[in-house]
Design brief:
Layout: H1 12-62, H2 78-81, E1 89-91, E2 94-96, E3 121-124, E4 127-134, E5 142-144, E6 167-172, E7 182-186, E8 191-194, E9 239-240
Antiparallel strand pairs: 1-2, 3-4, 4-5, 4-6, 6-7, 7-8, 8-9
Length: 242
């Protein structure tokens, strides 16, 4: 009697079953992986803002930037904090650009990775960060960092306001893909969030919050924040990160 051996490999039906199983597994696993990635990126952004708060406090207390020569330190931009760019100096009691190769902060108070400034922004772990320092007088208008980092030309941040004010936002590179929430912190050390569930979410290099988004008065870093029942300039709801 002759016997027939089954050819090795899968039949078409078996292959279709395997493909269907893989598709089912992927439909469950991929959303979970994306959610985990979003959560990790948001946690990293919060951690970065906490580190930034500490770095700014160290810089200010050290007096490494004192552009009016009054003995009180001032806050800095990413390029200055990271040692990638020279810090601002005093020239006859007025702010001036530091000299490359001479006036860089050493040791730096922030990781050198934050010296990679492009378009006044730093991108890390799916989030974009942008720093603002105050202009002169009241209202204290926000001044952005130079496009490639630091401050090399006017208008320079104001020495007096710069001793007490700074602000930084963090928002996703791509909303719902690299992160959801938008974050903010300043010299007070508290971190605030906005859920970003708005008609036009904050995302990407050109789509971040305005410099005064969370403040209660337009173009005034010295005004109260738009939290705890106070309206924010961007009309969104900002709450503390718990």
């Amino acid at each position: 009697m002759r016997t027939h051996k089954r050819n090795s490999g899968f039949t078409l039906i078996e292959l279709m079953i395997v493909v269907a199983i893989i598709a089912i597994i992927a439909s469950v696993a991929i959303p979970r992986l994306m959610a985990a990635r979003l959560s990790a990126n948001e946690s990293a952004a919060i951690s970065t803002l906490r580190s930034l708060t500490s770095a700014q406090a160290q810089l200010q207390s050290s007096g490494a930037i004192d552009t009016d020569g009054d003995g009180s330190g001032e806050y800095g931009f990413f390029g200055e904090l990271s040692g990638a760019d020279p810090v601002r100096v005093s020239a006859a009691g007025a702010p001036a650009a530091g000299t490359a190769g001479t006036d860089e902060l050493n040791p730096a108070v922030l990781s050198g990775a934050f010296g990679n400034v492009a378009g006044s922004q730093v991108t890390r772990s799916g989030y974009i960060f942008q720093m603002y320092l105050p202009g002169a007088g009241s209202p204290a208008a926000p001044i952005a960092e130079d496009a490639t980092g630091g401050a090399t030309a006017g208008p320079f941040p104001d020495p007096d306001n710069g001793e007490v004010l700074w602000a930084c936002y963090a928002w996703p590179v791509a909303a719902n893909q690299t992160g959801n929430r938008v974050f903010f912190t300043n010299q007070e050390g508290d971190i605030y969030q906005m859920n970003n569930r708005i008609a036009t979410p904050y995302e990407g290099a050109a789509g971040g919050p305005a410099s005064d988004a969370i403040f209660s008065i337009a173009a005034d870093m010295g005004s109260p924040l738009g939290v705890n029942g106070v309206a924010a300039t961007d009309a969104n709801t900002w709450v503390p990160v718990q």
